Amino acid sequence: MKKILSITMLVALIVTAPIKKSNAQAAFKVPAYEKTTLKNGLTIYLMEQHEVPTISVSMVIPAGAIYDGDKNGLASFTADGLQYGTKNFSKSQIEEQLDFLGASLNTYSSKEFAGLSAKFAKTDQDRVFPIIKEVLLYPVFDAKEFEKEKTRALQNLIRAKESPRNVINDYWDKFIYGDHPYANPVGGKSSTLKNITIDDLKSFYQKNYIPNGSAIAIVGDFNTKTMKDKISNLFKDWKKGEGNSLKITTPEPLPNKARVLLVDKEDARETTLLIGGKGIKRNNPDYVAIQVINTVLGGRFTSWLNDELRVNSGLTYGARSGFAPLKNAGTFSVSTFTATKTTQPTIDKTLGVLKKIHEKGIDDETLASAKNYINGQFPPDYETSGQLAGLLTQMFWYGFDESYVNNFQANVNSLTSAKAKEIIAKYFPDENLQFLFIGKAADIKNIVEKYGTLSEKDIKADGF
């Protein structure tokens, strides 16, 4: 089955990646692509792009950190372990062959899924695709390489906590999602990483690395029929699996009260903070309108938050707001940092800006500026084969509605001040806010505790 999508899908994936406002560009369409599903359940997207003689591959697999269970970091270790060596290639052979060809191959794990990306010359496809197959279907999870990676991961966790900005999002996810799998830190925590074994990786792989529920997108210089035959043959031996029995549901609602989490970093000279709450799912039908409004609030350098906290008051070098959408949930937060002594005015001015956008909304002139910004920021690198391959697998994972995608620019331009006010009231939290602070507790506890029910953690403690 063939589908033709608007170039605006590219914009829908990236907050600051809109289409320039011109009739010629508005008429541009993403090249036709073909979608098919093999008998084993693997979904394949093929898109021909003949301008450059290269091929890009993107893949998503239902094997992210949400499936870690009580072994946080297991999904990440497993994704890395795919390249420790395979049935027919050692780790060094994989690296040497790819380096010789000038090809790239990366495996990774995110919050919800594991992924693979690759790029190589068209003429090298018959040398690279067999490596991709080996990595996905026949990894050996070399124990020696795993122990080296475990040592590095434990050291990285220690270093990360030296800078609050490196770990504040992990604290935030745990604070907001509680015991839900969305709270699982992708990089794990020291107590769990220490106990993960090579057998755990093999077990996680067998359970989660299955074709059904996975998708591969290939974009580049090839013939679709020939490539379909090649990929079908390449993955015909990948056996369909039962999948993980854990079904990821929508997290429980947040408590109906303001809460404060204070993470003590006793040597801190500044306070790093997030203020926000519940967000949106990635396929929310109002996603475009939300991004336009967030541009005004905290999505660009001339946003209200940055003007108030940086330009007008000099309390920080920067302030932003944004949504972190996932498949079944999401969060919204305002993020900034300030000197310890200016913690309270920074909080109060942040809350003042949130109050302003709720009470006054956005006037026509400001809204027009935001629309022009969104419509004028589409970067050309989202038209590359690699970005298009990533686009297709994101479409698969999040299930974007095509009418929403094709109407992106129309949705931007049709947003009115009245509709914006409705969107603000519906999606931008302003009551029972959640506050996360990382700083010197001895100096800021008496300040932050008045904003909600207080709980405390020590940044040196295990986990988040």
* CATH fold-level name of the largest domain: Cytochrome Bc1 Complex, Chain A, domain 1
CATH superfamily of the largest domain: Metalloenzyme, LuxS/M16 peptidase-like
Assign the CATH class of the largest domain: Alpha Beta
Tally of domains: 2
User: What is the rounded Rg?
Assistant: 23 Å
**How large is the count of helical segments?**
19
Protein name: Insulinase family protein
Pfam families: Peptidase_M16, Peptidase_M16_C
What do you see in this structure?
With about 475 residues, this protein is an alpha+beta fold. It folds into two domains: about 30-235, Cytochrome Bc1 Complex, Chain A, domain 1 (2-Layer Sandwich), CATH 3.30.830; about 260-380 and about 400-460, Metalloenzyme, LuxS/M16 peptidase-like (Cytochrome Bc1 Complex, Chain A, domain 1, 2-Layer Sandwich). Helices cover about 40% and strands about 20% of the residues. The protein contains 19 helices and 13 strands. The strands form two sheets. The chain has a seven-stranded mixed sheet, with helices on both faces. A six-stranded mixed sheet has the order 10-11-9-12-8-13, with helices on both faces. Strand 5 (about 105-110) and strand 6 (about 115-120) form a beta hairpin. Helix 3 (about 75-80) crosses helix 9 and helix 11 (about 285-295) packs across helix 14 (about 365-375). The protein is globular and about 60 Å long.
